[in-house]
Design brief:
- It is a single chain.
- The chain is of the alpha/beta class.
- The protein has a single domain, classed as Spore Coat Polysaccharide Biosynthesis Protein SpsA, Chain A, CATH 3.90.550.10.
- It has 8 helices and 16 strands.
- Strands 1, 4, 7, 8, 10, 11, 12, 13, 14 and 15 form a 10-stranded mixed β-sheet that branches. It has a two-stranded antiparallel sheet with strand order 2-3.
- The longest helix is centred in the C-terminal third of the chain and has 13 residues.
- The chain is globular.
- It starts with 9 loop residues before the first strand and ends in a 9-residue tail after the last helix.
- The relative contact order is 0.19.
Length: 266
Amino acid sequence: MNSRPTKAKVVILCGGMGTRLREETEFRPKPLVEIGGKPILWHIMKIYSHYGFNDFVLCLGYKGQMIKDYFLNYRVMNSDFTLRLDAPEQPCFHNTHGQEDWTITFAETGAEAMTGARVKRIEKYIDTDFFLLTYGDGVADLDVSALWQFHLEHGKIGTVTGVRPKSRFGELSVLDGRVRQFSEKPQTKEGFISGGFFIFGRGFFNYLRDDDRCVLEAEPLEGLVQDGQLMSYIHPGFWHCMDTYRDHVALNEMWKQDCSWKVWKD
């Protein structure tokens, strides 16, 4: 029970319009908004990669072509190279700095789709018993290996990472590790919230619908709760999402001073 499938995929939701961060997302998708000169999506992928999860599925939607272009040009933009304009050969690269051992599937999941529909539409790319899932706008100093081990040991369909930040998103009511209630953006000031960083068994696809209106945080997760199939892994450390321009500024300041989520080495 302590092994990790080498090809367990990390699904990242990258398709939303990010309307609360319109200062940046008018020009680019939120996952490409930068922290310290790199897209927040890159930071998220580096967190997973640090723990050996290098196979990604990106659920694209709003301005998805820009995410494709970023990675198609990734090596050129992160390396020194020599190019002969009078020859058809590829550029000669002189270093490998910034070259990640990543396999990335770019999945067009719809311009108007909600989160649950996006996950349902990448089912065909999941070829292992379990997959990891997160949003394209949150970072944490999360021990993904410990999260993975927790999921394998409890034997339920789903695991959600519970955090306790200053703001409230989707609140969790937890008893003996099992989620008893999942409330999206409640007004309460108590308890843990969903920090994303999920793990699911393939059975979770049965709770999802291929319908643009299917919201991951509504019927699918509520259904898991009702069936006693959603567990919570409590993360007491750092977690922060980039929901507004203020968050964007704050995360960039953290990167300069004390970057809690930088678990990887350069």
